[in-house]
Amino acid sequence: MDRPPAIQPSTVQGSTVQHNVIQTRGLGAIDGAMSLILILLIVQIWLVSATLNSYLAGFDEAVLPGAIISGVLFLGCIGLYRFVTGVERRSSGSPQ
After folding, report:
1. pTM (2 decimals)?
2. Where are the domains of the chain?
3. Distance (Å, whole) CA 69 – CA 27
């Protein structure tokens, strides 16, 4: 998927090259973090369905560990999302 450049070239050539390098690194970090978020969400959905299946089968002791691990995965997704928004802000050049 090709993305259009978000930064317009400036009058100073060295500054333009540095901006493009920062933007490319930022896009790579964003792509990696979004892939991790996707994997964590898939694992979380599987964990919730497995925990619910165990609970409905009568294994009540599986509920608390499943809920705790699901909460940790959720916090991991929130942390990665905050990382993505921070990298996006820095790579686009907008004020923080």
Report:
1. 0.65
2. 35-91
3. 30
